Amino acid sequence: MDEIVINADKLTKVYRLYNKPIDRLKEAVSFGSRKKHHKDFCALEEISFEIRRGETVGIIGKNGSGKSTLLKILTGVLTPTAGNLSVVGRVSALLELGTGFNPEYTGIENIYLSGTIMGYSKEEMNAKLENIISFADIGDFIYQPVKTYSSGMFVRLAFAVAINVDPEVLIIDEALSVGDIKFQQKCYRKIEEFKRDKTVLFVSHDLIAVNKFCDRTIWLNEGVVVEDGKPFEVSKRYQAFMLDSKLTKYDESDKGEVLVSNDNINLNDISLDVLGDNKAQIIGIGLYDVLNNKKVAIVTIGQAVRLYIRVKFNSAIENPIYGFSIKDQLNNIVTQTNSYVLNKSVIYGNVGEIVNVAFEFAVPNLNIGSYTISPALASGSQEDHIQHSWVHDALVFQVVSQKKYHLPGFIALDEVEFSILQ
């Protein structure tokens, strides 16, 4: 585990962006003129790290943070603008769909093509062919052009090739999110076997998978390394960052202060999916720990939390009902409540008024995973009401647990008694 397999030293990648295609031609025929017709975009800026044999390293970051650019440099698809890179051994990569395969070739032909690109002879690929076809498990489609494949079939073949060509370094970029769950599980089992004495770079937005499979996590943002450390700690800070930067105006000085006295729960993401007649608007949401009144993005079962919702009334509304639902990754509503069923009546909402409300509760016995909160404001009753504002998936949080084993399902059962009856 002491051998350094990947050594990146101040890797930088700068792209030239042109407003119009003609600008590229103007610059090409400028004959020494210093006038620039492009803007420089720095996708990576002096990225440095070392990865040792036997390490499984997760790379996380929001879209556009430089993850895919970094992987393409590591695999030789792109050349860095500056910096040095050293990679020891053969690298196999499963990048975005389409990379490395010729759509006109059959699955079999693409297997040999991939082997040739990696430096294997036809005889060596002949020896690996049976294992690749068996793992891909796509039947007679292996003899058809890959342009006829579904995305799931494509991933099956690509992963089968990547994992069975005996690389020293395996790089996976999000592609496993496409396949069906049985194949995903099959891939993860194979990764567990592979990583025992090899090196794996794992890029994913699934923080649970990153925390489970990786020994270390690198967090990229806007082309620079924000943090490099233990997966759970890095993921915790990354998710808190994403919650604040995507959905709220956030100020470090606001941590721990009384929420209703500042603006750190204001929604500013225009891409949020909002339903309702707009007589009232939900303009803010925040999830806080009750004990220290600090914003949280990762919680544990039973933790006391307080959900704040901020509403602006564009019209006078009689008997407003404040509520929220919690949904899992498959968009299933796992629990919900509102002020009406809690018998907390609110008489009126006046035009132009901004109201802050809070729901305090213990995190329910949810299974580990990522969840969203959708706040809502209606009027009327539980059986007959008008929806004024419903913000789908306005807030994201993650439930974690210290238990060794976790089973699928909506909730986790505690204090279960088991006995064998004679």
Automatic annotation (TrEMBL):
<dbReference type="InterPro" id="IPR003439">
    <property type="entry name" value="ABC_transporter-like_ATP-bd"/>
</dbReference>
<keyword id="KW-0067">ATP-binding</keyword>
<dbReference type="InterPro" id="IPR050683">
    <property type="entry name" value="Bact_Polysacc_Export_ATP-bd"/>
</dbReference>
<comment type="similarity">
    <text>Belongs to the ABC transporter superfamily.</text>
</comment>
<keyword id="KW-0547">Nucleotide-binding</keyword>
<dbReference type="GO" id="GO:0016887">
    <property type="term" value="F:ATP hydrolysis activity"/>
</dbReference>
<keyword id="KW-0813">Transport</keyword>
<dbReference type="InterPro" id="IPR017871">
    <property type="entry name" value="ABC_transporter-like_CS"/>
</dbReference>
<dbReference type="GO" id="GO:0140359">
    <property type="term" value="F:ABC-type transporter activity"/>
</dbReference>
<dbReference type="InterPro" id="IPR029439">
    <property type="entry name" value="Wzt_C"/>
</dbReference>
<feature type="domain" description="ABC transporter">
    <location>
        <begin position="29"/>
        <end position="247"/>
    </location>
</feature>
<dbReference type="InterPro" id="IPR003593">
    <property type="entry name" value="AAA+_ATPase"/>
</dbReference>
<protein>
    <submittedName>
        <fullName>Teichoic acid transport system ATP-binding protein</fullName>
    </submittedName>
</protein>
<dbReference type="GO" id="GO:0005524">
    <property type="term" value="F:ATP binding"/>
</dbReference>
<dbReference type="Pfam" id="PF14524">
    <property type="entry name" value="Wzt_C"/>
</dbReference>
<dbReference type="InterPro" id="IPR027417">
    <property type="entry name" value="P-loop_NTPase"/>
</dbReference>
<dbReference type="InterPro" id="IPR015860">
    <property type="entry name" value="ABC_transpr_TagH-like"/>
</dbReference>
<dbReference type="Pfam" id="PF00005">
    <property type="entry name" value="ABC_tran"/>
</dbReference>
<dbReference type="GO" id="GO:0016020">
    <property type="term" value="C:membrane"/>
</dbReference>
